[in-house]
Amino acid sequence: IGASVTLTCSVQTVLILSPSWLIPGTSVILNCKVQHPSVGWKFFWYKTVPKVSGNYSYELLPGSTSGTEQDSYIIHGQTHTAGYACRAGKGDPVYYTEYSEPKFVWSGVTSTASLSLTVNPDTVQHFHNDFVLLSCGENSSERRLSRYSEDGFLEHCCRWGTKNGSTRNVHGIRYGTVVYWCESGSAFSNAVNITGQDDDDGIILVSPVHPVTEGDSVILGCKLRTENVLSDVLFYKNDRLIQSDARGELSIPAVSKTDEGLYKCQYSGKESPQIKVILFFCLRLR
Ligand SMILES: *[C@@H]1O[C@H](CO)[C@@H](O)[C@H](O)[C@H]1NC(C)=O
Ligand SMILES: *[C@@H]1O[C@H](CO)[C@@H](O)[C@H](O)[C@H]1NC(C)=O
Ligand SMILES: *[C@@H]1O[C@H](CO)[C@@H](O)[C@H](O)[C@H]1NC(C)=O
Known about the structure:
Pfam families: Ig_2. One of its GO terms (biological process) is immune response. InterPro entries: Ig-like_dom (IPR007110), Ig-like_dom_sf (IPR036179), Ig-like_fold (IPR013783), Ig_Fc_receptor (IPR050488), Ig_sub (IPR003599), Ig_sub2 (IPR003598). It is built from no helices and 24 strands. The protein is an all-beta fold. Bound molecules: 2-acetamido-2-deoxy-beta-D-glucopyranose (NAG) (3 copies). One 2-acetamido-2-deoxy-beta-D-glucopyranose (NAG) binds at residues 139, 165, 168.
């Protein structure tokens, strides 16, 4: 008895992008890997454009109309969150591989004042299952919330959480770090890290999700699952104790470059189970 088998031949590509978070003044490097490497591939590079009705459309990047010989592409002067994809092609007429999954370079700084992601309560770390309101600003069906988890999973709102209008999302926090941002028909907003703490008896550092600008004032706090800790918190910067008095908050009245570092808090003899990370960007935007 014969069985008929249909073979579909589609070649996958994988885009590797670094760094994931923009470092102002540095370039973004894209690298395209073909699933079955062989000679003769040319590489095509794309910017992803959000489609509110679906996933993304792809716009060729400059200089790649007829493909590049190199499997890498450098983007200079990137200043805000963006998505990229690649595919390879060979032959005449050109046989193209599948588009790669999109990859993103994130910036904590908003590129357009009108499209910005806000987080309430405004802190990077939360306890697992806490509820957080993520908002893309004005209530418009032209905007969506997107997220990318540590395991490389990209989702658009609202396949999770409770949808309240089209741009707000009450979200139960998961373990690990998830990056969130907003997308409109053509633009990407600032991106934020949200980290879920899995130890219900632990403590978290309360620190703002947005990068702070030089000269801003910042207040760091310490929180138990059920309440803010109001006194006798120890604050560490780069593992060095920097405040150990009756206060419950660490206040930095005017942030400068020297305040950059890794912060964490301790309370009641219990050290927080993870190192608490906060990065201060010292960008002069004007
Ligand atoms: C978006 O992409 C996902 C995963 O690749 C796919 O399952 C889904 O069908 C796509 N949605 C649309 C509307 O194209
Ligand atoms: C998010 O986390 C990554 C990895 O820890 C870090 O490099 C990046 O600066 C963070 N972004 C913001 C806006 O805090
Ligand atoms: C957003 O718009 C939707 C539908 O247009 C409406 O039902 C909802 O109440 C609005 N939400 C807010 C917060 O304005």
